[in-house]
Structures are given as structure tokens and as C-alpha cells.
Amino acid sequence: MRKFLGHPLSQAFTLLIVVLAVFFALQAVLAAALQIGPDGLSPALGLLLGLAGVVAALVSIPLARRMEGTSLAGIGFPAKNAIPHLLSGLAIGAAVQASVFGIMALAGWYTVSAVTVNVGSLATMTVLALCVAFWEEWAFRGVLLRLPEKALGSWWALALSAVVFGLLHAPNANATAMTLIGIAVAGGLVLGGGFLLTGSLWLPIGIHTGWNLFESSVFGAGSTGAGAISETPLLRGHVDGPQLWTGSGPGDLESGLVLILVSAAVGTVLLTLAAKAGRIRTPRRKPVAVTV
């Protein structure tokens, strides 16, 4: 068992199973205890369910440190530059969404019918976005990218984490095959690129938070992950354009080519910077036996 858990791939899948098992178990208990249905969640109830992910991450982080015999910094949570990276990530996530909605507005595919300032809803959704970003970035970049990277190299680990990240969004509201492709592109290139560039989870946590918050709670288009939450967005936005470009419906921008292409461009920049900084790993090679 010790030898099994000593390999990065074994560690990655063990930790991922722990995170997901705790997360889904807690969500099931909360849903049963509070009689929470699939539709019409209030922001407060959505936040409560989102905290299940934070608990799942906090349960597995000490386990990861024990398996690897390392510090918080060693598993992706360095104290140095944590706040700058988090804020930079928020700015990147917001910029991605602003670019997407700006392009759609210029094309006549996005319009705003009202502006509503609901401080309570925005504050709750901000905390919820941060909770979701924290546990998902730990699971998919901190576990499923960082650990396999040690054995497979950066590119294969990036592909693995992106594909699994996309597939696990399949149960989300309004998700389609194109949605999963779009989420895989975003997870693999933008969020994965942010981690590879810095070696820190704080940048992708910030990007993920800004991404979800601005898509759903600022521009009012919802998201595949928060489609059932009855929030009050800042802008009452309406998306009406070619499905190929804007997605298959409300809360499904991830399946549209506008978001996919913007994500691909931003992710390419991050990965190029990571490569120039020498942060791309090659696959680990087994030592060659030498006979005399």
C-alpha cells in the first residue's frame, strides 16, 4: 500500500476520489436534511451546498501533505504572492467574460434590459464563486494536474485534468457535449495555464472565481454550474444569437464558439509564458540499468 500511494498517479486518483466522495456525500445529506430540490435554489442555500466542496478540500489537503511529506506551499498553496495572484486571477476571469459579452454585444447577440443592485445577492454569490473555485481548483489543478505532471509531464497532465474536469460537469444544468468541450478548453488552457505559470493554485482560483461571478452574477447569463440558483444579477442580460457562437441556451455560454475561442487565446498566452519561464515539465523517465 505504501508503495502504491508513493506514485504520483496513485496519489492523484486517491485524493480525487476522497474529495469527490466527501463532496457528494455532504451535498446529499444537506439536500435530504433541508429538502433541497434541483430548481429554485436561493443564493444562501447554494452557498451552503458550495461549502460542502470547501469541507471536502479541507479534509483531503492534510491527507495530501502526509502522502507527499510536504508543506502547504509544496501542494500549491504558497503564502508568497497569494493575494496578488488571487487578485490577478480575478481580473483575468473578469476580462475573459467582459471580452465574451463585449463581442456578443457588438454582434447584437447580448442586450441588457435592466440594472439591479442587490448587495446581499452579489455578496453571497461572490463567496459561493470563491468556494466553488477553491475546491474545484484544488481537485482538478492541485490534485489532477500537479501530481500527474510529475510522472507524465505537463502536457499529458494538462490534457488529463482538462478532460476529467469537462466530464464531471456533465450533470450540470443545461450542459451539452459542446459545453463539456468548452469547459475542458477553459480548464485545460486558462486554469491549467495559470497553475503551470505560477506553480500556485491562487491564480487559477482567482480566475475561476472571476469567471463564474461575472458570467452569472454581473452579466446575468447564468452558468452551467449555477443554473438552478435564483439570484439577482447586476445586469438583466439576454443572449440571443446563433447557437454555434453563443451556446445552446441560457447558462450555457461554455458551448459557444465566442467563449471557447476567447478562452483558447487567453490560455495560449498563459501557457506560452509558462514555457518561456521554463515551467513546463517533460515526462519522468525510468533510470536505465547499466551493466558492466
UniProtKB/TrEMBL annotation:
InterPro entries: Rce1/LyrA-like_dom. Its EC number is 3.4.-.-. Residues 121-214 form the CAAX prenyl protease 2/Lysostaphin resistance protein A-like domain. Keywords: Hydrolase, Membrane, Transmembrane, Transmembrane helix. Pfam families: Rce1-like. The chain crosses the membrane at residues 41-64, 85-110, 122-140, 152-171, 177-205, 255-275. GO terms for molecular function: hydrolase activity. It is an enzyme of class 3 (hydrolase). This is CPBP family intramembrane glutamic endopeptidase. It comes from Microtetraspora malaysiensis.
